[in-house]
Known about the structure:
This protein has helices at 10-15, 55-61, 64-80; strands at residues 23-26, 30-34, 42-48, 93-95, 111-115. By secondary structure, it is of the alpha+beta class.
Amino acid sequence: MGYSYDPQNVFARILRGEIPNDTVLETAHSLAFNDIGPQAPVHVLVIPKGPYVNWDHFVAEATPEEVLDFARAIHGVVEAKGLEPGADGQGYRLIMNAGEAGVQEVQHLHVHILSGKVMGRMICD
Ligand code: AMP
């Protein structure tokens, strides 16, 4: 399947430094920053630096280095924020929206890391 990436999406503009972001962590291939409209006390977005629309696009076309870097960047945020589940940890939720049914607003792959409160079994309305 062919994926069409819009270089004017807001996260592409963040990556080009055209609009500011509240960076949590940066790696060779990924950037993590606080969501501008937090839905929980901790709400961080992690994005790959490469031009990927969604998870499906990323898995199909990213290099192994990019995929590993993205996975480790997510874990890096969990570690940096002290969110690891366990005896003293809080736990967290990861959400990745894709396409119309997933209600993906920004057309650049991102994972939401949510924590800081108990969020219920699932998010829906
Ligand atoms: P989604 O519905 O999964 O595409 O979520 C997009 C997310 O991007 C929302 O949670 C927005 O609050 C967030 N967002 C949009 N613009 C910005 C921005 N400039 N900086 C940080 N987060 C943003």
